[in-house]
Each structure stands twice: as structure tokens, then as C-alpha cells.
Design brief:
The chain is mainly beta and 132 residues long. The protein has one helix and seven strands. It has a six-stranded antiparallel beta barrel.
Length: 132
């Protein structure tokens, strides 16, 4: 058996022009789509982010490797398309991600707003503008 890590494919990139400690561009790999009950309806994706989001901002002992993304605006999806970023809510799971199949109130906490991008270059450009 190989000791090399299994690399997940990158689905899109995440960065925030709004701040929230989410300006650092991150590669996102979709783990699974979630059903939504509350606090949001519409498409919800559980994603693995690389590099992880620093958990210290929320007094967490560990960094956030998994987050849930939902569209900020009704009618939008989460995945970017046609060279247009998509505004998203970023939620941290409050339950083990292996148990997370439905987005329910009390099982996630919103940590900020961000945008998803098709390319790392677009995410980096946003991060540079946000820090200027």
C-alpha cells in the first residue's frame, strides 16, 4: 500500500472581499451536497478547504478543515461559473462532519461571507484588493 497522500480534486476556490478572516485564498473540494432545512434553503455544500481556516478567531482549539457553503443571494448556486464569482455564506459545522447530511439550525454557525471563484488567480486578486 502506498504511503503517498490521496489528493482530492479542487472544485473551486474561496476568498473574501468582506474580511471575516477569510481573505486567504483556499482551494475547496466538495465532500457532498447537503439538504437544507434551516437556517438556509437552496444548495448547500460541505467542502474541505486547504489551507484550513484558523480556528483561533472563534476560540476554537483546532483549525477548520471543513465548512458549509450556501448562496448569499436567492437564485444563485454555490459553484462559480462563467468567470463570475458567487457570494456565499460560510458556516462552521458544530457536529462531526461525517454525521452532517442536512443543514439544520444549531448544527452550524455562520462565520462570514466570502466568494467562490473558478481559478486561484481570481481568488488571489480578490484577497489583494481586500488587503489594500
Amino acid at each position: 500500500m502506498s504511503s503517498e497522500p490521496i489528493l482530492e480534486p479542487t472544485s473551486f476556490f474561496l476568498s473574501s472581499s468582506e474580511g471575516y478572516g477569510l481573505q486567504t485564498p483556499r482551494a475547496c473540494s466538495v465532500v457532498r451536497e447537503l439538504r437544507a432545512e434551516a437556517p438556509r434553503s437552496g444548495t448547500c455544500l460541505l467542502v474541505r478547504v486547504r489551507p484550513p481556516i484558523i480556528g483561533q478567531r472563534w476560540s476554537l482549539p483546532e483549525d477548520l478543515e471543513f465548512v458549509v457553503l450556501t448562496a448569499r443571494f436567492q437564485g444563485d448556486g454555490v459553484v462559480p461559473s462563467s468567470n463570475r464569482p458567487v457570494s456565499v455564506h460560510v458556516w462552521r459545522p458544530l457536529v462531526p462532519v461525517e454525521n452532517l447530511t442536512t443543514l439544520r439550525r444549531g448544527e452550524v454557525e455562520e462565520i462570514g461571507w466570502a466568494e467562490t471563484y473558478e481559478t486561484m488567480a481570481e481568488a488571489v486578486e480578490t484577497a489583494q484588493r481586500a488587503s489594500a
